[in-house]
Design a protein that fits this description.
Elements (H helix, E strand, L loop, with lengths): L1 H17 L4 H27 L14 H14 L2 H9 L6 H25 L22 H28 L6 H27 L12 H27 L6 H30 L7 H8 L8 H19 L1 H4 L2 H19 L23 H29 L5 H6 L1
Length: 409
Protein backbone atom coordinates (compact mmCIF):
# COMPACT_ATOMS: atom_id res chain seq x y z
CA UNK A 1 0.00 0.00 0.00
CA UNK A 2 2.84 2.40 0.88
CA UNK A 3 4.53 1.71 -2.46
CA UNK A 4 1.34 2.60 -4.29
CA UNK A 5 1.16 5.81 -2.29
CA UNK A 6 4.78 6.64 -3.17
CA UNK A 7 4.16 5.76 -6.82
CA UNK A 8 1.10 8.03 -6.94
CA UNK A 9 3.12 10.82 -5.34
CA UNK A 10 5.91 10.30 -7.87
CA UNK A 11 3.45 10.55 -10.76
CA UNK A 12 1.91 13.76 -9.40
CA UNK A 13 5.32 15.31 -8.72
CA UNK A 14 6.59 14.27 -12.15
CA UNK A 15 3.59 15.89 -13.85
CA UNK A 16 4.31 19.05 -11.89
CA UNK A 17 7.96 18.99 -12.95
CA UNK A 18 7.33 18.44 -16.66
CA UNK A 19 4.62 21.11 -16.86
CA UNK A 20 6.76 23.82 -15.28
CA UNK A 21 10.00 25.27 -16.53
CA UNK A 22 11.76 28.20 -18.12
CA UNK A 23 10.58 30.03 -21.20
CA UNK A 24 13.13 28.15 -23.32
CA UNK A 25 11.78 24.85 -22.01
CA UNK A 26 8.19 25.74 -22.93
CA UNK A 27 9.27 26.96 -26.38
CA UNK A 28 11.13 23.70 -26.92
CA UNK A 29 8.17 21.56 -25.86
CA UNK A 30 5.79 23.72 -27.90
CA UNK A 31 7.99 23.29 -30.98
CA UNK A 32 8.11 19.49 -30.51
CA UNK A 33 4.33 19.40 -30.07
CA UNK A 34 3.85 21.36 -33.31
CA UNK A 35 6.16 18.99 -35.24
CA UNK A 36 4.31 15.98 -33.78
CA UNK A 37 0.98 17.45 -34.91
CA UNK A 38 2.38 17.94 -38.42
CA UNK A 39 3.56 14.31 -38.33
CA UNK A 40 0.12 13.15 -37.21
CA UNK A 41 -1.51 15.06 -40.06
CA UNK A 42 0.86 13.45 -42.57
CA UNK A 43 0.20 10.05 -41.01
CA UNK A 44 -3.56 10.61 -41.34
CA UNK A 45 -3.02 11.11 -45.08
CA UNK A 46 -1.10 7.83 -45.20
CA UNK A 47 -3.86 6.03 -43.28
CA UNK A 48 -6.47 7.42 -45.67
CA UNK A 49 -4.68 6.80 -48.96
CA UNK A 50 -2.30 3.98 -48.04
CA UNK A 51 1.43 3.61 -48.61
CA UNK A 52 0.97 4.85 -52.18
CA UNK A 53 1.53 8.39 -50.83
CA UNK A 54 5.09 7.44 -49.91
CA UNK A 55 8.01 7.09 -52.28
CA UNK A 56 8.14 3.34 -51.69
CA UNK A 57 7.14 0.94 -54.45
CA UNK A 58 7.13 -2.80 -55.03
CA UNK A 59 10.72 -2.31 -56.30
CA UNK A 60 11.97 -0.39 -53.26
CA UNK A 61 9.73 -1.49 -50.40
CA UNK A 62 11.87 -0.12 -47.54
CA UNK A 63 12.64 3.56 -47.44
CA UNK A 64 12.90 6.42 -44.97
CA UNK A 65 10.97 4.62 -42.20
CA UNK A 66 13.11 1.48 -42.10
CA UNK A 67 16.27 3.55 -42.61
CA UNK A 68 15.51 5.47 -39.43
CA UNK A 69 14.46 2.28 -37.65
CA UNK A 70 17.80 0.64 -38.43
CA UNK A 71 19.78 3.67 -37.31
CA UNK A 72 17.81 4.14 -34.07
CA UNK A 73 18.26 0.51 -33.04
CA UNK A 74 21.97 1.35 -32.92
CA UNK A 75 21.36 4.50 -30.89
CA UNK A 76 19.37 2.44 -28.39
CA UNK A 77 22.08 -0.22 -28.21
CA UNK A 78 24.69 2.45 -27.44
CA UNK A 79 23.31 2.85 -23.91
CA UNK A 80 25.35 -0.26 -23.06
CA UNK A 81 28.49 1.88 -23.34
CA UNK A 82 27.31 3.63 -20.17
CA UNK A 83 25.58 0.70 -18.48
CA UNK A 84 28.56 -1.65 -18.60
CA UNK A 85 31.18 0.73 -17.11
CA UNK A 86 28.75 1.92 -14.41
CA UNK A 87 27.03 -1.26 -13.22
CA UNK A 88 29.55 -3.92 -14.23
CA UNK A 89 32.98 -2.27 -14.08
CA UNK A 90 32.05 0.11 -11.23
CA UNK A 91 33.45 3.16 -13.02
CA UNK A 92 32.12 6.12 -11.04
CA UNK A 93 32.89 8.56 -13.86
CA UNK A 94 29.94 7.16 -15.81
CA UNK A 95 27.53 7.06 -12.88
CA UNK A 96 26.05 10.52 -13.42
CA UNK A 97 25.44 9.94 -17.11
CA UNK A 98 24.06 6.39 -17.11
CA UNK A 99 20.44 7.32 -16.40
CA UNK A 100 20.55 9.89 -19.21
CA UNK A 101 21.87 7.22 -21.57
CA UNK A 102 19.12 4.80 -20.60
CA UNK A 103 16.49 7.49 -21.06
CA UNK A 104 17.88 8.09 -24.53
CA UNK A 105 17.63 4.35 -25.21
CA UNK A 106 13.96 4.34 -24.17
CA UNK A 107 13.20 7.27 -26.48
CA UNK A 108 15.09 5.60 -29.35
CA UNK A 109 13.23 2.31 -28.89
CA UNK A 110 9.86 4.07 -28.85
CA UNK A 111 10.83 5.76 -32.12
CA UNK A 112 11.92 2.37 -33.53
CA UNK A 113 8.52 0.86 -32.79
CA UNK A 114 6.77 3.96 -34.19
CA UNK A 115 8.72 3.66 -37.46
CA UNK A 116 7.75 -0.01 -37.72
CA UNK A 117 4.07 0.95 -37.29
CA UNK A 118 4.43 3.67 -39.94
CA UNK A 119 6.15 1.29 -42.37
CA UNK A 120 3.47 -1.38 -41.94
CA UNK A 121 0.90 1.13 -43.14
CA UNK A 122 -1.08 1.46 -39.93
CA UNK A 123 -1.64 0.05 -36.44
CA UNK A 124 -4.51 -2.19 -37.59
CA UNK A 125 -2.05 -4.81 -38.88
CA UNK A 126 0.07 -4.95 -35.73
CA UNK A 127 -1.86 -7.93 -34.42
CA UNK A 128 0.15 -10.04 -36.85
CA UNK A 129 3.18 -9.38 -34.60
CA UNK A 130 1.57 -10.68 -31.41
CA UNK A 131 2.70 -14.21 -30.42
CA UNK A 132 -0.11 -16.76 -30.40
CA UNK A 133 -2.51 -14.45 -32.24
CA UNK A 134 -0.81 -13.26 -35.39
CA UNK A 135 1.29 -15.09 -37.93
CA UNK A 136 4.48 -14.80 -35.90
CA UNK A 137 6.40 -17.63 -37.64
CA UNK A 138 8.49 -18.36 -34.56
CA UNK A 139 11.37 -19.29 -34.48
CA UNK A 140 12.17 -19.18 -38.21
CA UNK A 141 11.51 -15.51 -38.89
CA UNK A 142 14.32 -13.09 -38.01
CA UNK A 143 11.68 -10.36 -37.72
CA UNK A 144 10.17 -12.38 -34.88
CA UNK A 145 13.44 -12.30 -33.00
CA UNK A 146 13.78 -8.58 -33.71
CA UNK A 147 10.38 -7.87 -32.16
CA UNK A 148 11.29 -9.96 -29.08
CA UNK A 149 14.69 -8.37 -28.48
CA UNK A 150 13.44 -4.81 -29.07
CA UNK A 151 10.57 -5.11 -26.62
CA UNK A 152 12.74 -6.97 -24.12
CA UNK A 153 15.41 -4.27 -24.27
CA UNK A 154 12.75 -1.58 -23.89
CA UNK A 155 11.47 -3.32 -20.75
CA UNK A 156 15.00 -3.51 -19.28
CA UNK A 157 15.72 0.16 -20.00
CA UNK A 158 12.46 1.22 -18.38
CA UNK A 159 12.51 -1.04 -15.33
CA UNK A 160 16.14 -0.56 -14.19
CA UNK A 161 16.16 3.28 -14.19
CA UNK A 162 12.64 3.31 -12.74
CA UNK A 163 13.71 1.19 -9.77
CA UNK A 164 16.78 3.36 -9.13
CA UNK A 165 14.85 6.63 -9.41
CA UNK A 166 11.99 5.26 -7.31
CA UNK A 167 14.44 4.49 -4.50
CA UNK A 168 16.23 7.82 -4.82
CA UNK A 169 12.88 9.64 -4.79
CA UNK A 170 12.35 8.18 -1.33
CA UNK A 171 15.86 9.20 -0.26
CA UNK A 172 17.09 5.61 -0.25
CA UNK A 173 19.92 3.84 -2.04
CA UNK A 174 19.06 1.31 -4.73
CA UNK A 175 19.94 -2.29 -3.91
CA UNK A 176 22.60 -3.53 -6.38
CA UNK A 177 21.40 -7.11 -5.93
CA UNK A 178 18.14 -6.12 -7.59
CA UNK A 179 19.28 -3.96 -10.52
CA UNK A 180 22.77 -5.28 -11.36
CA UNK A 181 21.52 -8.67 -12.71
CA UNK A 182 19.16 -6.76 -15.02
CA UNK A 183 22.04 -4.50 -16.05
CA UNK A 184 24.17 -7.53 -16.90
CA UNK A 185 21.38 -8.95 -19.02
CA UNK A 186 20.95 -5.61 -20.79
CA UNK A 187 24.63 -5.61 -21.78
CA UNK A 188 24.18 -8.79 -23.81
CA UNK A 189 20.70 -7.73 -24.91
CA UNK A 190 22.03 -4.45 -26.33
CA UNK A 191 24.45 -6.33 -28.57
CA UNK A 192 21.72 -8.76 -29.63
CA UNK A 193 19.20 -6.10 -30.72
CA UNK A 194 21.59 -4.69 -33.28
CA UNK A 195 23.02 -8.00 -34.40
CA UNK A 196 19.54 -9.43 -34.95
CA UNK A 197 18.59 -6.32 -36.94
CA UNK A 198 21.71 -6.82 -39.05
CA UNK A 199 20.79 -10.49 -39.53
CA UNK A 200 17.43 -9.35 -40.97
CA UNK A 201 19.32 -7.91 -43.93
CA UNK A 202 22.29 -10.25 -43.94
CA UNK A 203 20.10 -13.33 -44.32
CA UNK A 204 18.51 -12.14 -47.59
CA UNK A 205 20.63 -13.99 -50.14
CA UNK A 206 18.82 -12.34 -53.06
CA UNK A 207 20.18 -8.96 -51.93
CA UNK A 208 23.98 -9.29 -52.36
CA UNK A 209 24.61 -5.76 -51.08
CA UNK A 210 23.45 -6.88 -47.62
CA UNK A 211 24.67 -10.49 -47.81
CA UNK A 212 27.97 -9.57 -46.18
CA UNK A 213 29.64 -11.20 -43.17
CA UNK A 214 30.87 -7.78 -41.98
CA UNK A 215 27.38 -6.32 -41.76
CA UNK A 216 26.72 -7.38 -38.15
CA UNK A 217 30.07 -6.20 -36.69
CA UNK A 218 29.87 -2.98 -38.70
CA UNK A 219 26.38 -2.34 -37.36
CA UNK A 220 27.81 -2.54 -33.83
CA UNK A 221 30.81 -0.34 -34.62
CA UNK A 222 28.66 2.38 -36.18
CA UNK A 223 26.17 2.13 -33.30
CA UNK A 224 28.89 2.55 -30.69
CA UNK A 225 30.13 5.60 -32.59
CA UNK A 226 26.84 7.39 -33.34
CA UNK A 227 25.07 6.51 -30.05
CA UNK A 228 27.71 7.84 -27.63
CA UNK A 229 28.23 10.82 -29.97
CA UNK A 230 24.57 11.73 -29.45
CA UNK A 231 24.88 11.10 -25.71
CA UNK A 232 27.83 13.53 -25.57
CA UNK A 233 25.77 16.23 -27.33
CA UNK A 234 22.82 15.63 -24.99
CA UNK A 235 25.06 15.76 -21.91
CA UNK A 236 26.57 19.02 -23.17
CA UNK A 237 23.10 20.57 -23.41
CA UNK A 238 22.05 19.22 -20.02
CA UNK A 239 25.05 20.51 -18.14
CA UNK A 240 24.72 23.94 -19.77
CA UNK A 241 21.01 24.38 -19.08
CA UNK A 242 20.42 22.43 -15.85
CA UNK A 243 21.95 21.99 -12.41
CA UNK A 244 22.91 18.41 -13.27
CA UNK A 245 26.68 18.05 -13.00
CA UNK A 246 28.48 16.07 -15.67
CA UNK A 247 32.22 15.87 -15.18
CA UNK A 248 34.65 16.58 -18.02
CA UNK A 249 36.19 13.18 -17.32
CA UNK A 250 32.89 11.48 -18.17
CA UNK A 251 32.62 13.24 -21.52
CA UNK A 252 36.31 12.55 -22.16
CA UNK A 253 35.85 8.81 -21.67
CA UNK A 254 32.78 8.79 -23.89
CA UNK A 255 34.79 10.65 -26.52
CA UNK A 256 37.40 7.89 -26.45
CA UNK A 257 34.66 5.28 -27.01
CA UNK A 258 33.34 7.28 -29.97
CA UNK A 259 36.86 7.59 -31.41
CA UNK A 260 37.71 3.89 -31.25
CA UNK A 261 34.30 2.85 -32.61
CA UNK A 262 34.54 5.39 -35.45
CA UNK A 263 38.01 4.12 -36.37
CA UNK A 264 36.80 0.50 -36.45
CA UNK A 265 33.77 1.52 -38.51
CA UNK A 266 35.99 3.32 -41.02
CA UNK A 267 38.32 0.31 -41.33
CA UNK A 268 35.33 -1.93 -42.04
CA UNK A 269 34.05 0.56 -44.63
CA UNK A 270 37.41 0.44 -46.43
CA UNK A 271 37.31 -3.37 -46.31
CA UNK A 272 33.83 -3.42 -47.86
CA UNK A 273 34.85 -0.95 -50.58
CA UNK A 274 37.87 -3.11 -51.43
CA UNK A 275 35.67 -6.20 -51.69
CA UNK A 276 33.15 -4.44 -53.92
CA UNK A 277 35.48 -2.62 -56.30
CA UNK A 278 38.83 -4.47 -56.47
CA UNK A 279 37.37 -7.51 -58.24
CA UNK A 280 33.83 -6.43 -59.12
CA UNK A 281 31.15 -8.86 -60.19
CA UNK A 282 27.50 -8.34 -61.08
CA UNK A 283 26.86 -8.45 -57.31
CA UNK A 284 28.75 -5.14 -57.03
CA UNK A 285 26.15 -3.22 -59.02
CA UNK A 286 24.35 -1.95 -55.90
CA UNK A 287 27.61 -0.50 -54.59
CA UNK A 288 28.36 1.03 -58.00
CA UNK A 289 24.91 2.60 -58.02
CA UNK A 290 25.46 4.02 -54.53
CA UNK A 291 28.92 5.50 -55.08
CA UNK A 292 29.05 6.29 -58.79
CA UNK A 293 25.55 5.89 -60.20
CA UNK A 294 24.40 3.26 -62.68
CA UNK A 295 23.03 3.73 -66.19
CA UNK A 296 22.48 7.43 -65.57
CA UNK A 297 20.66 6.89 -62.26
CA UNK A 298 22.43 8.65 -59.39
CA UNK A 299 19.89 9.86 -56.81
CA UNK A 300 22.00 8.65 -53.86
CA UNK A 301 25.31 10.21 -54.93
CA UNK A 302 24.85 13.50 -53.02
CA UNK A 303 23.95 11.57 -49.87
CA UNK A 304 26.83 9.11 -49.77
CA UNK A 305 29.44 11.65 -50.90
CA UNK A 306 28.29 13.88 -48.06
CA UNK A 307 28.43 11.03 -45.55
CA UNK A 308 31.90 9.67 -46.35
CA UNK A 309 33.87 12.97 -46.06
CA UNK A 310 32.02 13.86 -42.83
CA UNK A 311 32.80 10.40 -41.43
CA UNK A 312 36.49 10.64 -42.36
CA UNK A 313 36.83 14.23 -41.09
CA UNK A 314 35.23 13.44 -37.72
CA UNK A 315 37.29 10.27 -37.24
CA UNK A 316 40.58 11.97 -38.13
CA UNK A 317 39.95 14.93 -35.81
CA UNK A 318 38.88 12.69 -32.92
CA UNK A 319 42.00 10.55 -33.34
CA UNK A 320 44.19 13.43 -32.15
CA UNK A 321 43.92 14.09 -28.42
CA UNK A 322 44.48 17.82 -28.92
CA UNK A 323 41.25 18.11 -30.90
CA UNK A 324 39.32 15.48 -28.95
CA UNK A 325 39.98 17.26 -25.63
CA UNK A 326 38.82 20.58 -27.04
CA UNK A 327 35.11 20.37 -26.29
CA UNK A 328 34.05 22.76 -29.06
CA UNK A 329 35.84 20.58 -31.62
CA UNK A 330 34.53 17.44 -29.91
CA UNK A 331 30.91 18.60 -30.13
CA UNK A 332 31.36 19.51 -33.80
CA UNK A 333 32.89 16.11 -34.55
CA UNK A 334 30.14 14.28 -32.68
CA UNK A 335 27.48 16.16 -34.63
CA UNK A 336 28.94 15.53 -38.10
CA UNK A 337 29.72 11.90 -37.20
CA UNK A 338 26.11 11.40 -36.08
CA UNK A 339 24.82 12.87 -39.36
CA UNK A 340 27.32 10.85 -41.42
CA UNK A 341 26.33 7.53 -39.85
CA UNK A 342 22.63 8.40 -40.10
CA UNK A 343 23.08 8.81 -43.86
CA UNK A 344 25.35 5.78 -44.19
CA UNK A 345 23.00 3.41 -42.34
CA UNK A 346 19.92 4.87 -43.97
CA UNK A 347 20.11 5.86 -47.61
CA UNK A 348 23.57 4.35 -47.87
CA UNK A 349 22.46 0.88 -46.76
CA UNK A 350 18.74 0.24 -47.06
CA UNK A 351 17.86 1.80 -50.42
CA UNK A 352 20.79 0.54 -52.57
CA UNK A 353 20.07 -2.99 -51.39
CA UNK A 354 16.98 -2.91 -53.64
CA UNK A 355 18.76 -1.35 -56.64
CA UNK A 356 19.04 -2.85 -59.18
CA UNK A 357 16.20 -5.33 -58.78
CA UNK A 358 16.51 -9.09 -59.36
CA UNK A 359 15.95 -8.60 -63.12
CA UNK A 360 18.33 -5.66 -63.37
CA UNK A 361 15.66 -2.94 -63.40
CA UNK A 362 16.63 0.33 -61.68
CA UNK A 363 13.75 2.03 -59.86
CA UNK A 364 15.05 4.93 -57.80
CA UNK A 365 13.54 5.97 -54.50
CA UNK A 366 12.89 9.49 -53.25
CA UNK A 367 10.95 10.12 -50.02
CA UNK A 368 7.77 12.13 -50.35
CA UNK A 369 6.62 15.04 -48.21
CA UNK A 370 4.27 12.72 -46.32
CA UNK A 371 7.15 10.40 -45.41
CA UNK A 372 9.33 13.29 -44.33
CA UNK A 373 6.51 14.74 -42.23
CA UNK A 374 5.81 11.43 -40.47
CA UNK A 375 9.54 10.93 -39.89
CA UNK A 376 9.97 14.39 -38.37
CA UNK A 377 6.92 13.77 -36.19
CA UNK A 378 8.39 10.52 -34.84
CA UNK A 379 11.75 12.15 -34.14
CA UNK A 380 9.89 14.91 -32.30
CA UNK A 381 8.03 12.24 -30.32
CA UNK A 382 11.35 10.72 -29.29
CA UNK A 383 12.75 14.10 -28.26
CA UNK A 384 9.53 14.85 -26.33
CA UNK A 385 9.68 11.53 -24.44
CA UNK A 386 13.38 11.96 -23.65
CA UNK A 387 12.88 15.54 -22.41
CA UNK A 388 10.15 14.38 -20.02
CA UNK A 389 12.22 11.47 -18.72
CA UNK A 390 15.40 13.52 -18.37
CA UNK A 391 13.71 16.45 -16.62
CA UNK A 392 12.17 14.17 -13.99
CA UNK A 393 15.35 12.12 -13.53
CA UNK A 394 17.49 15.23 -13.13
CA UNK A 395 15.18 16.64 -10.45
CA UNK A 396 15.36 13.38 -8.51
CA UNK A 397 19.12 12.90 -8.92
CA UNK A 398 19.90 16.47 -7.83
CA UNK A 399 17.74 15.99 -4.70
CA UNK A 400 15.14 18.60 -5.64
CA UNK A 401 12.36 16.02 -5.89
CA UNK A 402 11.90 13.89 -2.77
CA UNK A 403 8.97 12.03 -1.27
CA UNK A 404 9.94 12.69 2.35
CA UNK A 405 10.28 16.43 1.76
CA UNK A 406 6.71 16.49 0.52
CA UNK A 407 5.49 14.56 3.58
CA UNK A 408 7.20 16.98 5.96
CA UNK A 409 5.55 20.06 4.48
Amino acid sequence: MRRLKVFKSLLIDSLDVITHGSRKYHLWMGFLTFVMLVGMYCYSIQLDQGLSVTGMTDRVSWGLYISNFTFLVGVAAAAVMLVMPTYVLKDIDFKQAVLIGEGLAVAALIMCLAFVVADMGGPSVLWHMIPGIGVFNFPNSMLTWDVIVLNGYLFLNISIPYYILFRHYQGKDANPKIYVPGALISVFWAVSIHLVTAFLYQGLQARPFWNNALLGPRFLASAFAAGPALIILVLAIIRNYTAFKVENKTIGKLAMIVTVAAQINLIMLVSELFKEFYAPTHHSESAYYLFFGLHGKNALLPWIWTSIPLNVLATVLLTFGKFRNNFKVLYFCCFILFVAIWIEKGFGLIVPGFIPGPYGKIAEYTPTGVEIGVTMGIWALGAFVFTILAKTAIKIETGKLRYKKKDSQ
